[in-house]
Amino acid sequence: MAFQSQEFYSDQDLRQNAVQMRRVLLGVALPSLPLLAALAFSLIARTQWLTVLITILWGGVLLFYGEMKIAPVLAYRRHLAEILSGLRRTAQGKVVSLSQEGTYKDGVFFDTLIINGDPQMDPEGERLFYVDRCKERPPLATGDFVRVTANGNYVTAWEK
């Protein structure tokens, strides 16, 4: 049997997240510029109904992009910062389950991994871990012995 392991996170992930954030902010700026110019025109022309219309439209654009594009990237950035700087601990045991459906926690999608640890080493019994859905899914099956390195309940590395 071949030994397998995988480290999920590195500083490269933070750099990729920063590039993605710049792209998203550019996506917000492009539709905002004509609206901002139209708003300036309506304010100078003192056209109240046009000012109100443009302000509502611009607010809708900002809310849409904020919730649909910016918020997920920021949530993942917070997740990465915590994972890369936090304390890690190791747990080991047999895989009870690795979910096929996602769980949404702290603005990030995860798969849930449950392992049943050795009662002498881990008095807690079954442990719940979250595996990042943006990363490659570990090839784990029920009954496999696995060693999980985690920050809190978030898996940062695994060994099989």
Question: What does the model show?
Answer:
The structure is a single chain. The protein is an alpha+beta fold and 160 residues long. The chain has 2 domains: 7-85; 89-159, OB fold (Dihydrolipoamide Acetyltransferase, E2P), CATH 2.40.50. It is built from 2 helices and 7 strands; from the N terminus they run βααββββββ. Strands 1, 2, 3, 4, 5, 6 and 7 form a 7-stranded antiparallel β-sheet that branches. Strand 4 (108-117) and strand 5 (126-132) form a beta hairpin. The N and C termini lie close together (10 Å).
* Main sheet characteristics: 7 strands, antiparallel
Number of strands: 7
Rounded radius of gyration (Å): 23 Å
Low-confidence stretches: none
Tally of separate helices: 2
Beta-strand percent range: 25-35%
Helix content: 40-55%
Spell out the helices and strands N to C: EHHEEEEEE
Averaged pLDDT: 87
**Overall geometric form:** elongated
Task: List the domain count as a whole number.
Answer: 2
User: Structural class given helices, strands, pairing?
Assistant: alpha+beta
Cα-to-Cα separation, first versus last residue? 10 Å
